Automatic annotation (TrEMBL):
<dbReference type="Pfam" id="PF00501">
    <property type="entry name" value="AMP-binding"/>
</dbReference>
<dbReference type="InterPro" id="IPR050237">
    <property type="entry name" value="ATP-dep_AMP-bd_enzyme"/>
</dbReference>
<dbReference type="InterPro" id="IPR020845">
    <property type="entry name" value="AMP-binding_CS"/>
</dbReference>
<feature type="domain" description="AMP-dependent synthetase/ligase">
    <location>
        <begin position="17"/>
        <end position="384"/>
    </location>
</feature>
<dbReference type="InterPro" id="IPR000873">
    <property type="entry name" value="AMP-dep_synth/lig_dom"/>
</dbReference>
<dbReference type="InterPro" id="IPR042099">
    <property type="entry name" value="ANL_N_sf"/>
</dbReference>
<protein>
    <submittedName>
        <fullName>Acyl-CoA synthetase</fullName>
    </submittedName>
</protein>
Amino acid sequence: MFLQRIGNKGIRLGTLFDRAAARHPGNMVVLDHDLDVAPELGRRLALPEVAELVAELASRLWAAGVRTGEKIVVHKTDGFDISLMACAAARIGAVPVLLSPKLDGETVVELVRRAQQPYLFTDEAKLTDSLPAEVFEVAKKVLLASGTFEGATPLASYAGTARVDPITMPPDHPTLITHTSGTTGTPKLAVHTGHTFQARYRPQATVVSAVRSREPIAIHVSFVHSRMFTAMPIAILQGHPLIILKDDEPESVAKLFSQVPPGLIEAHPNTFLRWEVLAKDPRGPLSNVKYFSSTFDAIHPRTVHTLLGASRRKLPLFAQAYGQSEVGPIAARTYSRKRGAEADGRCVGSPFHGMTNVRVVSRDGRPPTKSSPGFIEVRSDGRIVTYLGEHQRWEKQVNDGWWRMGDVGYRTKWGCLHLLDREVDEIPGVESTLEIEDKLFARIEDLIEVIIIPGPDGRPVPVVSTRDDKPLDERVWKDAVVGLPPMADPVRWKLEDLPQTATTKIKRLELARLLAAGSDGNGELS
């Protein structure tokens, strides 16, 4: 779209920290963990230190044989050095392929194979615990972030090598490859260019520009997700100290936020759900937050209300963007204390003027409505250019420049987009499983997850997780489902046992398969 194209020279990940350090040399990156590639740097790093580390890692990659245009798969134990390694690879013109630490070994081998003999950056723990020996056959060379393993080379062995100057690639050249969520099967590899990433940067930067200069921005986002590579540049280039979280455990988060109070937090919806308990923490870890932001999945009204209530700032806002890994943010809206997320049902907002567009295509010849939703299709210059090794799958989702999201919904006369369900998650006789889940969250305080999936007999089955794994009160449940479509009795699972993607989305199809196979996730039938 035209506002995404003006002056778009590409994201330039390889020199990102150099440029940020030149503008704001005194700013810091605060971590809740040590970096495997440089534990000696600690957890408080000045931007020039991070820039130096990226340059050093890039030089080590070059010394290891990685060259411009080659791919390097990054699949290691979770940590911010995953994102830094992506920047280091981009600095020498290589193409990083980021695979979540949560992926199983067989899936990783398949995706490495799809990358056609790339370099592999991993660690001893992954090679010992999850990656099969076959990974050495499909990778050109295996480099280690930490530890030792026969047949693999520690990247640290190239420390102190001659410094390599950064290489700037054309904006239309692949700059990063991420994978899709894999909620419907083996993840696809999404190819981003410098141009498409910069196009995504612009609508998201409008939110951060409202945050007061120098206020810290906290990010708890999968280190392999495309969102990290827009959220991180926006924060450091606009002059904000950066708080990077690997762990979303409430106690550790409360301690860190009490020491370094953020003005804006970007996180996954399920993370915000877990942080509801911080609203009652006497240390007030959320008290300084002016903006909460989430772009990954539907956010539940109860969570929005709780978090906004925890802020002591005047008129705090919760910004939710609707988008997808393949296209970036498409539409957005904000919630306030006065106008909460329950005000407009499943509304996910309006497109970014001059940057993105949305249409809803009828499935039955009638105008799409709540009772007869249509296919959601979008336009954005942030759209990926292909799926690596699967271009035909990419083409199937493109219709005259419009990208089919795989979701169903409708638009109101005011232009607001309402998201009802994923196409594959629809249940006959149920207008919106997401709407039911919202209502259950609002009515049952102890719920920390609820997923409505089709049971073996076709009836909707609520799979629930409770805070501290408490038993579900039968009377509370019966009161909560009054007025909702008929459903089977709830099945209780521990949250950690639910199949999840890298961004903590629940794999609904996988959950339905497990339920049909008789698994109860070590939970109980209510």
